[in-house]
Amino acid sequence: MTEEQGEYIRFLNGEVLVFKHFFKEYFSKFFAFTSRFIDDAYVREDIVQETFIIVWSRHLKMFDSEVSLQAFIYRTLRNKCLDYIRHEKIKERYSNEFSRELETSDYLMQAIIDEESRFLIHKAIQSLTPQVQAVIKLHLEGKKNKEIAEEMGISETTVKFHKSVAYRELNKSLGHLFLMVAMLS
Amino acid sequence: MKEISQYLFIAKLICKERIAGLNDSEKKQLDSWRNESEKRERVFLDLQRISTEELEKRYDNVDVDLKWESFKKRQQQRKRNIRMGVAVAASICLLITSGLWLWLGTLGEERVVLAEQGRQNNVCLVLSTGEMVDISNVGQEEVKLDKGTKLYEGNRLEYVRPDSLHKKELEFNQLIIPKGTFYHLVLSDGTKVWLNADSKIKYPVSFGQDKREVSLRGEGYFEVAKDSTRPFIVSTDKMDVRVLGTTFDVNTYEDEGKSFVVLVEGLVEVSAGKGESRIITPGYMAEVNMHDVQAKIQISKCDPEHYIAWKNGNFSFRNASLTEILKRVSRYYDVTVIREQVFEEEYYTGDVSSDVSLESLLAVIESSTSVSFKVERKIVYVQKKRD
Questions:
Q1: Nearest CA-CA distance, residue B198 and chain A, Å
Q2: Residue boundaries of the structural domains of chain A
Q3: Maximum pairwise Cα distance, chain B
Q4: ipTM of this model?
Q5: pLDDT attached to residue B107
Q6: What CATH number belongs to A127-185?
Q7: Which of A23, A133, B179, B229 is the most exposed place for a label (fewest CB within 10 A)?
Q8: Considering CB atoms only, which of B33, B50, B75 is closest to A118?
Q9: Contact (CB<8Å) B46/A114
């Protein structure tokens, strides 16, 4: 494989990603995801790096789309984490009940949705202006408009206005999600 | 993998719900997902109170530039490891092959060789009339061919009608080689073509006066007869090769994802895409990615011997991936390869005579890799070795 080919990830649907950007954008997300299985940060970093190496070498498989690549990485990370844990269990560093829960598909479901949602929310907030960000942060903590207005020393109308700005921006960047209904069935 | 794609979609819905609100159809989808089980509802509720400070700690404390640097180091190391692995694999392959020969010598009748497997498939020739004839069994029965065509035993077809110098419509023949068979073709101008398994070539029974053009799918090795007045052109799906008396190999198997030309002697011009063309010299190869119409022609140095080994009945692998090797095995032995698990790619270098049986070849590969094979009725199952 030449250097040039290594710089891109090509998908069967015709899309192309710059590998370096993909790595930098998602490293922290996948690194955080592994903490749901393993504590040791060195081991986790190793697992995430190795998984990116697999994606980079890519002789294994062409991916249909970015979603299937993300899914592949989540699945690979989980398998590598479980492999490590099984190995460690022999040394009795993990209790049986805990590791058994980690292996369930419900745990995987919870881990991925929770991680992915948090990461998406984090990215979405960062794209907003500081004023709007401040309102949304309080909203995410579960506060009502009135409480937000008091805390920030602004009127409730202003709070509503900031929220409407956020809705508009995020609707633009997240798009309408009904197009993907087919995937759910 | 499908369920994970679904999780990713649900996460998008939740993210949108939390900060931008959902429209009716989105809300319906999220609700019906939540109602399915208590565990799902729990996941949703856990995300109702989020501290953004924690999110910042979670995602912004990683120095991704530093991580990228260590990733690049790992990449370099990996490349070195592959090369070291290759040197070891090569010596193993060679040793085992010679060992096999001794062993096969005594058990000759038991081996299923390539040629025998080939007989089960038929080589077809499409005549200028459009009629398709089976030319696998020479001598048993008389087959009607176009004028000036000679069929020989040992998979060989020759066209001897002199090229017509009058302007008239060309008559075309098409030769279809199945998996598990090789074929040798001599065209009317004296150009020799070796066709690899699973290939197709279309050519005029005799060439016209201004150019010699054939079209190819699969792989062919060409020894083009010198004729400076009529260029010889091999056209393929993704690129054209234009030559004036030379020896080269064109490979356009679709499942390999790229088309390439390897030049042994002479000079050729390769053109692809929107009018891009490059000239290559002996010992170099030109490559075009099949999945990308925008891709440029890439020129690189290569060892031609390796690429044309198949012509002399050998497998020659140079830093070839397991995927690549299995594709070739499938083509030469006419078997289907099924991977029972996903595994990491490995790379090998080695030479093996393709005269050996399928089982012996697989044994050689097995001995120096982390996979094992099981053969059942023309299907090869690939598994990870248990350690």
A1: 22
A2: 1-122, 127-185
A3: 86
A4: 0.87
A5: 32
A6: 1.10.10.10
A7: B229
A8: B50
A9: yes
